[in-house]
């Protein structure tokens, strides 16, 4: 399963779709990529060796991962990580914005070399077609409650408490399994509002989505009361077509250097207020 489809929809602030665990909202305003392939198949390694330009598919509408800032510049955690990888490889990077639903099809069709859009290849079908680099972000379940909440320190503690959740999401299923009382909502924004209004005790969601919300809303009155351990987290990386093994090795080496020199930690703190590049 793609990680992008695993993050619940609609943040109140800039984060357009972190509930896309179930309902990945299409980026309607993002331009489609051209029908013609950007480069001949299998030439990624040649372009890296020749210090050429690699093309990267991304949405450009999925903050804080890939979006346009107030000046119109394309930025975001995934975008800046990709630029840092390209710098390590000594190549230029050209981003091509496209709708999420067309992104992997565009990659498979050769319209760009890589995808940078919070993708985690977790299904056999995707793994047969694509390769993923070393992860640059890790995400798993997280729970928020009001600042005055003292009853919750683990998932077991929510039995009998009210959880604002979308019924179709895996987070809703998690709350049901923990025997919480479900308060149905349409998305994450509504869930957070109900907790703030004391109409629900808590909400479960993706950690990157909630970290982004807390960073942008420091006066929200909400806090983290539980977060899943590293064994429950899923890593997102740059995604390539199969058959680019040599290029993937170079990309992985660049990503490991960015881990070691602190670049990923710095970018994580810039966009999330904490280091999401490690489990």
From TrEMBL:
Record Pfam families: SBP_bac_3
A single Gene Ontology CC term: cell envelope
InterPro entries, per database record: SBP_3_CS, Solute-binding_3/MltF_N
Subcellular location, principal: other
Top-level taxon in the UniProt lineage: Bacteria
Cited CDD domains: PBP2_Ngo0372_TcyA (cd13711)
SMART domains given in the database record: PBPb (SM00062)
Solute-binding protein family 3/N-terminal domain residues: 53-275
Localization (cell): Cell envelope
Leader sequence residues: 1-19
Keywords per UniProt: Signal
Protein name: Amino acid ABC transporter substrate-binding protein
Species of origin: Conchiformibius kuhniae
């Amino acid at each position: 399963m793609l990680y992008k489809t695993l993050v619940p929809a609609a943040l109140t602030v800039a984060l357009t779709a972190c509930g896309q665990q179930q309902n990945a909202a299409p980026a309607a305003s993002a331009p489609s990529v051209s029908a013609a392939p950007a480069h001949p198949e299998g030439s990624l390694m040649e372009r890296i060796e020749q210090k050429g330009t690699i093309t990267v598919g991304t949405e450009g509408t999925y903050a804080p991962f890939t979006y346009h800032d107030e000046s119109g510049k394309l930025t975001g955690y995934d975008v800046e990580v990709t630029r840092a990888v390209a710098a390590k490889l000594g190549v230029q990077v050209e981003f091509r914005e496209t709708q999420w639903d067309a992104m992997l099809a565009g990659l498979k069709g050769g319209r760009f070399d890589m995808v940078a859009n919070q993708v985690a290849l977790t299904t056999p079908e995707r793994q047969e077609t694509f390769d993923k680099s070393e992860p640059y972000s890790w995400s798993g379940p997280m729970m928020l409650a009001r600042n005055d909440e003292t009853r919750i320190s683990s998932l077991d503690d929510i039995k009998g408490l009210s959880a604002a959740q979308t019924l179709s999401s895996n987070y809703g299923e998690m709350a049901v399994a923990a025997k919480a009382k479900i308060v149905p909502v349409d998305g994450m924004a509504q869930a957070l509002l109900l907790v703030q209004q004391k109409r629900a005790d808590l909400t479960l969601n993706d950690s990157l989505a909630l970290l982004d919300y807390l960073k942008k809303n420091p006066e929200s009155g909400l806090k983290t009361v539980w977060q899943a351990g590293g064994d429950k987290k899923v890593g997102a990386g740059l995604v390539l077509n199969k058959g680019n093994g040599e290029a993937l090795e170079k990309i992985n080496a660049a990503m490991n250097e960015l881990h070691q020199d602190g670049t990923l930690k710095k970018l994580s703190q810039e966009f999330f207020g904490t280091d999401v590049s490690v489990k």
